[in-house]
Each structure stands twice: as C-alpha cells, then as structure tokens.
Amino acid sequence: MSIRRLPEHLVNRIAAGEVVERPASALKELVENAIDAGAGSIAIRLAEGGIAGIEVIDDGCGMAPADMALALERHATSKLPESLLVDGAIEGVETLGFRGEALPSIASVARLTIESRVRGQEGWRRTIDNGALVAEGPAALPPGTRIKVEGLFARVPARAKFLRSPRAEYGACVDIVKRLAMARPAIGFTLEHDGRRSLAVQPGETRPERVAALTDRELVRNSVAIDHLRGEVRLGGVAGLPTFSRGVADHQFLFVNGRPVKDRLLIGSVRAAYQDLLARDRHPIVALFVELPAAEVDVNVHPAKTEVRFREAALVRGLIVGGLRAALDAAGHRSAHRVSAGALGAWRQEPSSLPGDGSAERFAATESHSDSGFRGFRGLPSPAGGGREFPLQSAVWDRVADFALPAGRAETAETPPPSVAHPLGIARGQIAATYIVAEAADGLVLVDQHAAHERLVLERMRRAMADGGVARQALLLPEVVELDEPACDRLEARIAELGEMGLELERFGPRAMLVRAAPALLGPSDVRGLVTDLADELAAYDEALSLKERLDHVAATMACHGSVRAGRTLTGAEMNALLREMEVTPRSGQCNHGRPTWIKLAHGDIEKLFGRK
Question: What pLDDT band is residue 373 in, cutting at 50, 70 and 90?
Fold first, then answer.
C-alpha cells in the first residue's frame, strides 16, 4: 500500500481526538487562551453541560483580523517568544497553551465563532463550521475576545456517542474552571450554566481566599499554610487538617508553575505525607503550588498538558512530603472536628415531653439497668419548699428510675485548678473509662484516651528512632508466635529494621517467630497480637512503599498496641498529663488511623442546648 498525505480536514480531526476529548477539554483550551491573553476577568457560559454550547468572554489583548485567521491554522501560536523559536528550547515556555492545535481542532468538530477586538481598533468576527469557513465580517464588542462553540461532535457521531450526560459533562467543566481559577487569583471568573450562575470569584483575592471560595469556606480555619523552599523549588498553598477530610479525592488541586496538572508523582507525594494521619478511606483537601525554573520541568509530554515530567523527581517528592509534614506538625493538637449544637439538639426536651404524658414508655426497655441514682429522688421537693412533692405518678417514676446514667467518674472539685492557661483544659472526670472530660476556657473538651495516647506513643517512637533507636525491654521468657510461612518470611526480611524499633525477633522454624524483646515504650503489651499485625502490615505495604514509609506503618502498628486502652480508669494526674503532652505533640489532633482524638463543645453551643441563646 502506497503512502499518502492525509487531507487537512482529517488531520485536524485526528488532532481533535488528542486535544478535545469532551466539552471540558475544549473549555480548558479556551480559558487558557484567555489567561495567556492577559485577561482581568473571564466569563463562561455553558449550555447542556457544554455539549450544546460553550462561550468564553475575556477582556484581554484581543486579535486583529489577520491574527484571527492565522490562529485557526494548525501549529500557529503567539505564545512562543522569538528566542525560543530560534533556539528550539521549547522547555522554556511559560504560557499555558503553546502547541497551536486547540482552535483548529475544536473548529474541525464543532461550529466555532470568534469575535475579537484590539483596543483602539474595530472588532472582527470569523465563523468556522466543522472545518469550513462560513462567515466573517465586522463585529461590535468591547476590547477582548468572545469565542462560542456550538454543537460539539454533532457531525462526528463516533465521538458523540461517548459523551456522558449533560450533568456529568457539566461537572467536568466546573472542575476545570475551578482549577484554572485557583491558579490565577488575580483574575475574576464567572460561570453560568443554562442561564443560572453557579460560580463567581472576584479578582485580586489572596491564594487562601480563592482556594476556600472554590472548595469549602470552612477551609480557612481548618487548614495550614504551606511555604517551603528547597534549592530553586518552592512549594506553597494550603492543606486541610487531617480531620477535615473527604471520602473522595476530588478536592486535591495540584499546580506546577501555575499550570493545573494531575500527576501521579504529586498525588503519591500527598498520599505519603498524610499516610498515618488519615483513615484509608479518607482523602485530604489540598491545593499545592510548585514553582521551579521552566527548564527543570517538561510540560510537553501530554497533548492536553495535564501531565508533567520533572528533571529531579525525587527532589520534588521530598519537598512535598517534607513541606506538608512540617506544616501539619506546626498545627500541633489542632483538630477540625467540632460538635455543633444542632447535632445535639435532640437531647433538649420541651415541656410537652415531660414524664407523665406517655413519654416514659421510652424507658421500658431499660428496666434491667441499675437504678442507683434515681430511687432516692422519687419524692422531689417543690421549688416553693414546704416538703411537698411534685404530683407525678409513681409508675412514671418507676420507669424513669430504671433509666441508668452512663457510668462515669468525676474528680473532687473543692479547689478546681484554673483551665485558662491550657488549650485542652483541665481534666474534670472520665466517662465509661474511655473518654476524658476536660474544662477549657472556651468550652468543654472530650478526649478519646486510646486514640490520643496512640498518637503520643507513635511520636515518641519516631523521636527515639531519630535519636539512635528505640529502647527495648527483654522478655523474661521469649514468646513463640506461630504464623504461616510467607508471613514469617516477611518478618525475617525486616528483622534489622524491626530491631531499630526495639522489637527483637528470630526465626523459629518454618512457621514461627521467636520474640526476645519488645519496645520499652509499649510497656506490657500483647506481643503475639503485635507480631501478627506487623506481618499483615508488611503484606499490605511492603512492595509499594519506601523503607521510611514502611517503618512509619510498623511504628503506627506498635503504637496502637502500646497505647492506653479504652476501659482503663485513669487518675486525675494521668488524665492531665495526657492532655499536657497532647498540647505539645505534633499531629496529636488525630490518631494514627485518621480519627479525631478530641472534640470541643463551645460555651455558645452549650447555651443553645439549654435555650440561653
């Protein structure tokens, strides 16, 4: 078969297949052009999720008629300086779009109308319908450019059948606009869909303000600022607290030199930074901006420029992991988990639900509980005194008496210590031998003692490892732990690493491990359960993670086994010691599995519960 040159319209459609996958792809190219044109505000209108129509209006520099005609030819661009064209150093490009394929590709699969005007000149219009010029002439419009795309893939049924529903396509368009708007806080953006405005951000916002406006307003007070420099590479942005997370990874925004990207290296770095701070089914909210010399990154490895390649990938990964870790460490004991009065409003009882009107039937199922604390108060004195009792039915009080209070314990309060000086307050008691109740200057604090101590033990182990190793405690009698052979093989391969953490193991036959010493930090612990869990952790993570990340998982598993268990009664001194250590320990706002270690009920919330506000 002889070799033939493809016709121009077919070449454009092939290019469109690489650049224009869906309405969001076309929208991305058009908005990037508006940004590169120096626009101060960009207005976007969509019809049926962008399938029926896309319109982008900007107030940028505009195009003269001759430039407009040239812009619709393939590989014609104004975004590469003359110096780069001469030297061929395309890696030095700093604009968003530079291939010169976007407009002709879109025009080959849709009806494209461009109206543009340079300041001080007349406007001009040019319309291309699926690759063919159908109209051009003068146009009246303010300085800038207006581009309208109609009937995307209407004449390409092979591509149109792969489009999703208008709602799904609209969601993809919103994501594109959010990412581009987040990267350019100096530019104002508006987005309308089928005549309804769904997004509007004002120009001149700070980066944290813009990120919060496009993600979650609560992010402002539930995040940490990132500003980290390593060599010529700078990392900035905001990162949500681990307890301010989401069930899906749709709020992770990554940028390289102002360009939104979805890069596996960057995503993996974020996951590594949060690895022991989040539950496995939770995802952080982050907006990270990596700035580095243009020659150190290749942005030309993907037609849509959504992927990049770094010359020093390890440097960038280390910067992201280290920068995020440092910022989260600085957050200390902060936690985004808060209890609102609305969540507890169900505990309020209106007069209509007082005992005596049938509501006491709710307590019928609790008759087997202890009645201590109630039997002595059946005859309550009236508020006016005189020894009379409330005229309440005896049967009702019998039912109420059987509703037992949760088991709790309070410290004596003759001379309560001040709580103003401590962020987590002073311990006042313990509920169900699991939760510490503390009084702070601004509210009531509840602490999960197991979750909190778990984090504290992990951080102690990390400090000990950094200082040369974890102290070990020899067992009086070495313990034999039976496992399957692959699990023993995994543990045997990591004996040296586990030894640095204070766990001394030996192979004891094909299906057993001998434990001679355990980390002294853990105190009395279930050695058998610890070794079994470590074998499971190594099976899950051994291949995918680096040595440091594997050690972190092992340390987290050990810390869980060595922490104060739920159900253990603590003295007042022990509870306060735990609170004070939490206040000075990094990342103590969440346990090793990502759950919050403490919550606070503010004074205002308590007043709402009692109807005082």
Answer: very low
- CA 492 – CA 505 distance, rounded (Å): 8
Contact 91, 294 (CB under 8 A): yes
Q: How far apart are CA 199 and CA 178, in angstroms?
A: 9
What tokens appear for 451 in the block?
Answer: 């979750």
Whether 448 and 538 map to the same domain: the answer is: yes
CATH classification of the domain holding 602: 3.30.1370.100
The confidence band for 188, taking pLDDT boundaries of 50, 70 and 90, is very high
Least confident span in 118-132, 194-208, 529-543: 529-543
- Using CA atoms, how far residue 550 sits from 498, 539, 573, in Å, is 10, 11, 35
H or E segment to which residue 214 belongs: helix 207-214
- Bridge partners of 588, per DSSP, are none
Same domain for 222 and 324?
Answer: yes
In the chain, the amino acid numbered 214 is L
Among candidate residues 367, 373, 365, 375, the one with its CA nearest the CA of residue 397 = 375
Question: In sequence order, what are the residues at sequence separation of 6 or more whose Cβ sits closer than 8 angstroms to the Cβ of residue 495?
Answer: 505, 506
Q: How many whole angstroms separate alpha carbon 110 and alpha carbon 150?
A: 6
Phi, psi of 361 (to 5 degrees): -60, -20
Residue 495 tokens read as 């004996």
